[in-house]
Amino acid sequence: MAGAACSRNSDRSDHGASGGPVAVVASFYPLAYAAERVGGDAVSVTNLTPPGVEPHDLELTADDLEAIARADLVVYVGGGFQPGVEDAVRTESAAAVDALAGVEAPGRDGGSDPHAWLDPDSYASIVDRIAVALSEVRDGVLAPGVSGNAATLEEELAALDEAFRVGLADCSTRVMVTNHAAFAYLAAAYDLEQRAISGVSPGSEPDPARVAELADQARAEGVMTIFTEDLVSPEVAETLADEAGLETATLSPLEGLTEEQAEAGDDYLSLMRQNLEVLRDGLDCA
Ligand SMILES: [Zn+2]
């Protein structure tokens, strides 16, 4: 594992009491899942983004700020995905790790695209980075368990990667039309081409001309399915699908669990397996 760039408060006395579980604050679901898996029972993970909430540009409460200030470790992603969290980490001088630092972005304009967790291999790099940071908190109290837990999860991610590689090897189309541009890492990993209706953030207003252009392209290229997503209204994607005479299918960008998913016990791995089946069906893969 590479060394972690982990900023620390010079006065650590207010960071987590030394007796109880290590307090980790994760800014949204994939980071919380990784911290829970890697830290095991020895950590208590608080997810700043509640189930059903879309994490882009998350607004923090006073309780969130206090949790960030008190945490043994805050895990977040930089680059403007959740600027409020980045600001709070700075102003609260929190012990924190940017889980995305050092993860290679796909394509030449991937620099500001945070969605690395949607590629199992890039997600393994995030897991590794969180493991390094966790093994250093409280003078290494977690270190003995962390590397084994991380290795187990990384093996599961390698198996997931293999399932995607095999499952998406032979498809009628390699063009995936998506709602917001969350799938660039996944597309790059499996030789697919993402065409997104809106930008890297789902809040950006879709341009009607863009929708018409995508509909034309979709028809010309034999695309059959427009992929919507679970935490964002499918309205625009459904308009596009109607316009082009196409089906819609729902992918999870894994930015958070819906309340139903949380209740059903779904997690990163089960939802990624579902994504694979939705993609195989929508891209007509053998
Ligand atoms: Zn997103």
Explain what this protein looks like in three dimensions.
The chain is of the alpha/beta class. It has two domains: 12-164, 3-Layer(aba) Sandwich (Rossmann fold); 168-282, 3-Layer(aba) Sandwich (Rossmann fold), CATH 3.40.50. Helices cover 42% and strands 12% of the residues. The chain has ten helices and eight strands. Strands 2-1-3-4 form a four-stranded parallel beta sheet, sandwiched between helices. The structure holds zinc ion. Residues 56, 115, 180, 182, 202, 253, 255 line the site of zinc ion.
The topology string of helices and strands comes to EHEHEHEHHEHEHEHEHH
Helix count, DSSP H or I runs of 4 or more residues: 10
Bound molecules: zinc ion
- CATH homology superfamily of the largest domain: Nitrogenase molybdenum iron protein domain
Q: How would a crystallographer describe the biggest sheet?
A: 4 strands, parallel
Write the layout of secondary structure elements.
Blueprint (H helix, E strand, L loop, with lengths): L21 E5 L2 H11 L3 E5 L14 H9 L2 E4 L6 H9 L4 E3 L21 H17 L6 H25 L7 E4 L5 H6 L3 E4 L11 H13 L4 E5 L5 H10 L2 E5 L7 H5 L4 H15 L4
Parallel strand pairs: 1-2, 1-3, 3-4, 5-6, 5-7, 7-8
Helix pairs in contact: 1-4, 1-5, 4-5, 5-10, 7-8
